[in-house]
Amino acid sequence: MKSKLNRRGFLKMIGVSAAAVAVRPALAAPAGAAAGNNKPNFIVIYADDQGYGDLSCYGATKFKTPHIDKMRAEGMKFTDFYVTAPVCSPTRSSLVTGCYPRRVGMHQHVLFPHSTRGLNPKEITIAELLKKQGYATACVGKWHLGHQKQFLPASQGFDYYYGIPFSNDMWLPANMTYASDAKLPDNFTDDQRSKGEHKRSTVPLMRNEEVIEYPANQPELTERYTREVIKFITANKGGPFFVYLPHTMPHYPLHISKKFKGSSGAGLFGDVIACIDWGVGEILKALKDLGIDKNTLVIYTSDNGPAAGSAGPLRGKKGSTWEGGMREPCVMRWPGKIPAKSTCSEVATIMDLLPTLTRLAGGEAPKDRVIDGKDIFPLMTGQSGAKSPYEAFYYHTARGELAAVRCGKWKLHIKPVQPRRKKNQPKVKPTTGAQLFDLSTDINEAKNVADKNPDAVKKLTGLLKTFDEEIKANLRPPGKA
Question: What angle do CA 13, 179, 225 make, to 5 degrees?
Answer without folding.
Answer: 55
